[in-house]
Amino acid sequence: MAEVTLNFPRRDARDKLRGRTRYTIDRDVSGVLHAALLRAPVPSARILRIDTAAARAMPGVRAVVTAEHAPGRHGIGIADHPLFAAGRVRYHGEPMAAVAADTLAQAQAAAAAIVVELEPLPAVITMAEALGPSASLVHPDWRDYEVLVEGGAHGGNVAWEATVLRGDPEAAFARADVTVVESLFRVGRQNHLSFEPRAAIAAFEDGRCHIETSTQAPWTVRNVTAHLLDVLPSAVRVTVPAVGGGFGLKFDCALEPYAALLARHAEAPVRLVNSRQEEMLTCLSRENAEIRIRSAVTKDGEIAGREAVVLMDCGAYGGEQIFLTTMTAHTLGGNYKLGSVRLASRAVYTNTAPNGAFRACNGTYNTFALERHTDEICEAIGMDPLEFRRRNVLGDGNLGATGQIFEGDVLGPMLDRMAGLRAARPSKQAQAGDRLYGRATTVGTWFVFVGPSAATVNLNADGSATLVTSGVEIGSGSMMQGLPQIVAHTLGLKPQDVVVRAADTDAGGYDVGVGGGRTTVSLGAASMAAASEVRRKLLDVASGMLQTPPEGLTLANGRVEIAGRPGTGASIAEVAVQAQKLVGPIAGSGSFTGPGVAAMPGCAAGHFIDALDIPVFAVHECEVAVDPDTGHVEVLSYAVVQDVGRALNPRAIYGQIQGGVTQGLGYALHEEISIGADGSIRQSGFETYRVPLAQDVVPVEISLFEGAPSIGPLGTKGAGEVPILNVAAAIACAVANATGRRVQELPLTPPRVLELLLGRGLPLDFPHIATAWDDNLLRPLAAASWQGRRMAGPDAPGP
Amino acid sequence: MALLLTVNGEDRTSGHGAMTPLVDVLRDEFHLKGAKPVCREGFCGACTVLLDDHPVMACLLPAGLAVGARIRTVESLAPDGALSPLQQVMEEHDVVQCGMCFPGMLMSLSGFLAVTPRPTRDEVKAALSGNVCRCTGYERIIDAVLSL
């Protein structure tokens, strides 16, 4: 096959640099109405009355809709989420009504004129309150909700509970030769702050709804909107222009159903765009979490047993957090060889804005907790943290938490690579001056979220190819670089000769969405399969033209050649023209889904993914200086060794790593969301929510680790999601190293660091996490534990 | 009363009131959608344009105050499709990701480079301190600028 063109320039750069790219917020639609949402001003209330009569009579108003116009519920795992607050308000900012009018000012004025009578109800704002003995229920009717995915325990304010049990942790903790180390951690929320807010334009055309939207998941938008509008999914078409940043925020359906419902009632196109304040108030943030982790470790550093409880705040509706309870097994349960393990991961309802997916969801804080816990273990048993990691990281044939067998030695050699980088450059300790200096090396386990993707490739008579998928370009470049490279490589074309169709659910087949590092892998594999079918057909026709069997032909540089006789063949364009005459135009289709790597039966309960099809590993190292007078943390150096499988666009991956590390630095150091007693998010914009600026950042030293096993096309793995994974871990471990204090919370803002240094902070205490692990569970594990113990006995697979 | 504005060397008339933010006049009336209204509070820099060669936030500037000044937007940087040297190095270094911040960033840097043609790394960082980027982590953009 042809060589892969590396570092292929992205075709969208030029228009983006010229200000010509039209994102959803830039689209002009003739006759479009503007929409506004009326949002709840309290976190919990009974809705006694909503009167829209006055609003409907206001100038320019074309439609007003409320819960009565869309009574359905949607969700992930549990259908708990209505489009509008129905009967009850569950979070501050929850939509209660929507208005479409000729101008935005008219829509906002009419929304403000809707009369709402609310009777305040008790609210649970924190997870401690939600799990307290006399907590009011966010969903008193939880028993009546449709269960979309079986398997997770749920009840009361616990939206979902996923558990892992492998081996006999009870016995491990009771061993005489182990030291037991326990750690508690707490992290806040993180806002994606994607520059383009959530935005949608909906219109009805020929009886179907067309939605143009800023999303990462067009098929989810199609299916959820159709469900809420009570129409067939095929009656909704979703197209996606360039997306101005996603980072997971747009991996779910958001504003689209409101726009669609209004368009249906107004019988005109409707545009709905969140203001920045709305984005802050209702962002599907990375969730706040509370973690208790205990380990039983021998003096040689063998981890005989590990147990943990992870509480994830899903806000008022389950959403992504229900799915993400799965990830604790693979993140907090990742990195290290464990003799036995039990984990409980619980999504907890509170009367706060729903949380969602954010780049390396769940992984960032669980890696922070795991790596800080690891350093506390090292301190307790007196072992060097690097030595501990070298001895314990997962390697070839080792068992993961759910009993999957990992292939290949990856983390160990990556630690060696990092040691090489460290040896090659001088320490920046001198730059710390009078400040406290610290350094840390952390490891992380993440994955590629594989799953269904579809692709079609049309070979055109001019020798170009058109790739049709439902993939979205959100900025990472996968659709602009990786996909055309893969198709071009398969067909012997130049990547610039592969046209990539923007996402359109009427054209491309089903796709899970762009996120989870899956674009190059899943869409790439589907595209490669489609291109392979084109290749077969192309060679068949060429075989007749050149009087040579297909296996004697090669494809490269836009030409078919007889092997070993360059210049004797024909251009691909000529073959395509001939094909059109003989058999009709050449097209191919391809599809892909995860193969489903096996976990150990009986280990995981309530999980959406029992084992990782494509694990991805990362090693991060940093040096920090902590100012003892102000608590300010300066990052002096940062280095990353990342498992990429194979790098098709090293430059673009460097960009992803520098950007992902920077987002991680914000998370670790100063991006803070606080929630007031009224349940509202206090940070309303860029002024109060502090993201990294140019002067906060250092150049990241990067080494791409290639060659680890991957089922991705050409050996690739997703490279865009994982860079943020262990940044908070590395920074927190380095700050602990610098200060000699126990870092248990993020972000490490100057006041929090000062508190640590002055010993003024109260130690963390989680009365809502039971000391005995079993006591935390809604569903006792008796049966599962028996099976788990049996499986981990002499008959267990693996080492 | 109509506002007479000079945008990218061209005299334009706006029907908006003098208090309308300049960014809305540029985008909604003149269809110059490069400048992005991302925060509308003057913190993110995505709507930066040059006003008599000085970078200003178009979201905070009432259009009436731009009367009589030369307004330059990102659309002016490559008038005939030929990228400016600054745009070229951004393309060559493969630093563009979602792209929403670039129009503002390019205008801040254009204004800065006009008065500081040979900047140090720290000076470039300082010049970018009013332009937030959520994707790139800045450093590779700065590398691109320093290659000029």
Structural commentary:
Chain B: InterPro entries: 2Fe-2S-bd, 2Fe-2S-bd_dom_sf, 2Fe-2S_ferredoxin-like_sf, 2Fe-2S_ferredoxin-type, 2Fe2S_fd_BS, Beta-grasp_dom_sf, Diverse_Oxidoreductases. Chain B: It comes from Chelatococcus reniformis. Chain B: It holds the Pfam family Fer2_2. The complex is a heterodimer of chains A (799) and B (148). Chain A is globular, with a radius of gyration of 27 Å. Chain A has three domains: 166 residues, Aldehyde oxidase/xanthine dehydrogenase, a/b hammerhead (Aldehyde Oxidoreductase, domain 3), CATH 3.90.1170.50; 322 residues, 2-Layer Sandwich (Aldehyde Oxidoreductase, domain 4), CATH 3.30.365.10; 142 residues, 2-Layer Sandwich (Aldehyde Oxidoreductase, domain 4), CATH 3.30.365.10. Chain A has 799 residues and is of the alpha+beta class. Chain A contains 21 helices and 32 strands. In chain A, strand 25 and strand 26 form a beta hairpin. In chain A, the strands form eight sheets. A seven-stranded mixed beta sheet of chain A has the order 3-8-1-17-14-15-16. In chain A, strands 11, 12, 13, 18, 19, 20 and 29 form a seven-stranded mixed beta sheet that branches. With 148 residues, chain B is of the alpha+beta class. Chain B folds into two domains: 74 residues, Ubiquitin-like (UB roll); 62 residues, [2Fe-2S]-binding domain (DNA polymerase, domain 1). A five-stranded mixed beta sheet of chain B has the order 2-1-5-3-4, with helices on both faces. Chain B is globular, with a radius of gyration of 15 Å. At the A-B interface, helix 1 and helix 18 of A face helix 2, helix 3, helix 4 and helix 5 of B.
CATH-assigned fold name of the largest domain in chain A: Aldehyde Oxidoreductase, domain 4
Strand order, largest beta sheet of chain A: 3-8-1-17-14-15-16
Dominant shape of chain B: globular
Cα shape of chain A: globular
Number of strands of chain B: 5
CATH domain topology of the largest domain in chain B: Ubiquitin-like (UB roll)
Give the distance, in angstroms, between the N- and C-terminal Cα atoms of chain B. 44 Å
Sketch the topology of chain B as an H/E string, one letter per element: EEHEEEHHHH
Summed up, the helix count of chain A is: 21
Mean pLDDT across the residues of chain A is 95
Unreliable stretches covering 5 or more consecutive residues of chain B: none
Helix and strand composition category of chain A: alpha+beta
Given as residue ranges, the uncertain stretches of chain A (5+ residues, pLDDT < 50) are 783-799
The CATH homologous superfamily of the largest domain in chain B is named: Beta-grasp domain
GO molecular function, one term (chain A): oxidoreductase activity
Protein name (chain A): Aldehyde oxidase
Domain Aldehyde oxidase/xanthine dehydrogenase a/b hammerhead (chain A): 18-122
Pfam family, one (chain A): Ald_Xan_dh_C
